[in-house]
Amino acid sequence: MPSDPIVCPFCPLCCDDVRVDVASGETDVPCELAQLELAAAVQTLPARIGSESIDSIDWNALGESLSLHPTPVVEFNGATIAEAKLLETLVAEGRIQLRIADAASARALDQTIARDGLLGTTLGDAVRRAEYFWVIGNLDQHTPRLKERLNQSGAALEYTPTATIGLFSRLHELLGGLANDAAGNPAAIDPSGAEPDRLHEHFRNSRSTVVVVGEAAFESGEEVIAGEMLLRWIARWNEAALPITGEQEGDDPIVSRVTLLRLTADQNLRTVIRWRNNQVSPSELSSPPVATIRVGSPVGDAAPVRLQIGGVDPGQSLAHAYLPAAVPGVHHADTTIRGDGSVTLPLAGWTDSTDPRRADVLQRVLGDA
Question: Once rounded to an integer, what is the mean pLDDT over residues 170-189?
Fold first, then answer.
């Protein structure tokens, strides 16, 4: 293993403590995602069309054989800042349509945040200051080491696989009862009973609670309402500025605060589009449901595509054709933003590749020289 750690480019957590064996791609961190992606990047996979491996690529013939639309739909997973700039340009020129693979829960939160704002926090602040974490949804699929990071804080952690409207309704009810009671009397709360009551009691006695939202956080079909209820509950809690009983510093009581932590997978792409357009608009992104070209490994329940560029070859069932490509953060340098938007990190090129960069492969497929 090399002595210097790298920034891992394969998830929005961007772990900066990863050491890799240059020859094998083996790493010393307990992360299956990093292990799989690094091994695939170092041990170059062959290009193929269908089930047949190919040694050389006729780029003109390839485009025709894939029967791509003149403006193909592209799903680009884990774009760096430089790649995001290229994608935004290709969209603006009408060369591609761009699909951001958001789940319903993430889209619902984005809509509410765009309208109502967000009382958020960064990963660093959360780990330093939180006394209690409430995790909603699945963290393991897209940020495999996030729980490890949260546990380093020593704060208590409560896990809710899926949050329902009923749960949020009860939290609003309990908060309203405290805010309207000058004595803050929690007599109607049973902390050993139903989940909302237990959660409320923890929030009430924590100086800093961080709500961590993962994948599939809300009940299917309830995402929009649940997202609104969560963010409005956070806003109401902080407006109430409820003092923690029996604790004070001088004459100022210590109050209980709640913030939200999200790690967004497409942070670079969203940030670049906001830099240039001041918005992330579904109409401008042309977010159709089915991609024909995917760059990077499939994420979640991926649909089949005609072509995948780079990443782990998922086989013919998920990609009719596969072309290897050099990976930023492995074969060449680039820059990325951690998924909480807090810090810009350098991606190092620490080994060589004879394959072109994945942005260059995409442009060649599109017919560019």
Answer: 67
Report helix, strand or coil for 72: coil
| 287 touches 7 (CB < 8 A) | no
What does pTM read for this prediction? 0.88
Cα–Cα distance between 312 and 38 in angstroms, integer?
9
Give the whole-angstrom CA distance, residue 279 versus residue 255: 35
Beta strand residue intervals within the chain, DSSP E: 47-49, 52-54, 73-76, 97-99, 132-136, 156-160, 208-213, 243-249, 252-255, 257-261, 293-295, 305-309, 319-323, 334-337, 344-347
Angle (CA) 180 112 91, round 5°: 170
Q: What pairs with residue 261 in β-bridges?
A: 212
- Cα separation, 25 vs 160, in Å, equals 35
Summarize pLDDT for 244-302 with one digit per residue, the tens. 865 555 567 789 999 999 998 889 998 898 888 776 544 345 456 689 999 999 987 78
Q: Distance of CA 270 to CAs 16, 158, 328, Å? A: 22, 30, 18
